[in-house]
Amino acid sequence: METISPKIVAAISTAVKAYQDDQRVSYESLPQLLTVPSMERISLWAIAGRQEAMLQRKIWQLRLY
Question: I need a surface site. Which of 2, 9, 10, 13 has the fewest CB within 10 A?
Fold first, then answer.
């Protein structure tokens, strides 16, 4: 049975450790990526105004036909 060179074992263990460190960093930064950026506040007055304008347009269109 062949023995593996200590240099090869060291290279493999270093690569595995680097991979695990990279995975840990990406898991730690995951919650920051999932956060939603702050959105503008919604003005209910603006929504109500648009809805009223659309209603008035609909009423006007119904009168024409």
Answer: 2
CB half-sphere exposure, 2, CA atoms < 13 A: 4
Question: 48-63, pLDDT tens digit by residue?
Answer: 999 999 999 999 988 8
Residue with tokens 């304008």: 53
CA 39 to chain centre: 14
Closest C-alpha to 10, from 22, 18, 1: 18
Amino acid of residue 60: W
